[in-house]
Amino acid sequence: MRRYLAVLIVGGLPAWPAAGETPARPDPHSFSRPDQVAVTHLSLELEVSFEARRLSGVATLTLDNRSGASELVLDTRQLDVQEVHLADGTPTEFELGDEQEFLGRPLSIRISPDTRQVRVRYATRPDAPALQWLTPEQTAGRRHPFLFTQSQAALARSWVPIQDGPGVRFTYDAVVRVPEPLRPMMSADNPTAAEADGSWRFSMTNPIPAYLLALAVGEVEFRALDERIGVWAEPSVIEKAAWEFADTPRYMEAAERLYGPYRWGRYDLLVLPPSFPYGGMENPCLTFVTPTLLAGDRSQAGVVAHELAHSWSGNLVTNATWNDFWLNEGFTTYIEHRLMEAVHGRDHSEMLAALTRQSLDRELELFRDEPDRTRLKTDLRGDPDDSFTSIPYDKGYFFLRLLEETFGRAAFDAFLRRYFDANAFGSVDTAAFVSQLNAELLDAAPQQATSIGVAEWIYEPALPSNCPRVRSSRFEDVDVQVAAFAKGAGAQDLETAGWTTHEWLRFLAGLPADVSLERMAELDAAFGFTHSGNTEILAEWFLRVIERGYGPGWDALERFLTAYGRRKYLRPLYRKLAETDAGLARGRAIFEKVRSTYHPLAQQDVTEILKLD
Prior knowledge:
Number of strands: 21
Strand content: 15-25%
Structural class: alpha+beta
Mean pLDDT: 92
Radius of gyration: 25 Å
Low-confidence stretches: 1-23
CATH topology of the largest domain: Immunoglobulin-like
Shape: globular
Oligomer: single chain
Number of domains: 4
Largest sheet: 6 strands, mixed
């Protein structure tokens, strides 16, 4: 049963399509039918109210009616749609369909074959899952509130009525009004100042999918890193952030040498408050990043390299559906490793590759009873966010590395550059990628193609036996120290001088499962793990704290889970807590205190892990 919000009878419009079975949608995670009518441009007028925790305004959608259709279908989720007009101001009939979990409700709008624009007046709700409204106390400066969006995977529909699938691309402009002294920022050309009327105007002239729509509002300052790259952050954080990300121009130079020119104008970074659920989000022109990257030693710059790499794999060439997500993240992880090698050397990138294999092995073990979750090409029908595991990132990376090692780096680099050029500002599914791979590399070398086993890598679960092997001499040295400690060597006697974060992570992951509490205390006294300022080291150490019941680490663990909302850390730590009854009780008690400070995506994760209603 469909519920009408309003019915406005408008003369001259064609009848609604006849009732009957709805044909299969091109994208299982979107109600829209871009094969019939596609949105090509979005104009937004938005008012931001922190008091009401609401965005309100108008979305004007420019259409390409490819089939002479009488209906435009948009995606919405928890939106209050107030009225819809055609370009000439004439009101038109619209209806909201039934709610579907994770996907929201289709908004069907009556149009005619010659309709070129519709205007939707609407407002968001305070609990819109794409929007996180932060109080001043939840920010670094503690003076002003903060708002940020997270549209990926299918959450843009909870703050804009849009065709919310990665296979639909459109340009956009926006006029945004916010309370002073705050400023809005978007995934677009960001203005240097407000207009005379106090509004802020934005423009994105390259077509993007809806998940790359982004808005942030807060008290921020800017520091330039070079003429086209800079950092935005709260005033109390800006200097630290500018220092931490100083190598970003070097990553940009390496990426352009390998994969062609950067096509998005500026590349800026915005450091968000700590509840941001990801390491980074590759919003065009303005990557959002977590403050957990501010380790004070530039050790987590790989996240910046990863988000920059998305400017080619993901933003320039996008997965057509979330079932093809590996085309975004596997490619981006591969490019990230190449950029880290170009800037920091092969030793550094091979340590990163070894940690990637470690992460992949953990994820494969986690999904041992759900083998379908370990395929690259997936068939998800429910929550598109289920695609966000390390499988598409890490298994995808090793598949592309295998192609590089099989055909040679020069040939594979040339293939990737042609792939990005041929599909620029378009969306590609797995079948189209395989077709291009066959035509450009595999068909000319059938013996090598057979040895790779493309179908097994992409369409089958688990990890094929020909996965590239990683050898890191620096990690081999770490393993010697792990073995020495396991045999009784004192922590103070270990040879750890000059170790990087990567080496400490290898060391912690290699500790014996039955390490005693006395030995844990010895390590803590020698290296200060419980009070480290590096969140990567803390997260790995806290897994041992939980596993071994190391009392001196419990308070620090709770502070960590209270301070940060990054899903990369929350999921494994809460999972580890949930392995025992005592740990589950402790995890539930912590979560009850901090639930409201986590992003909705993180709340959903932890609720499922802790088996809460």
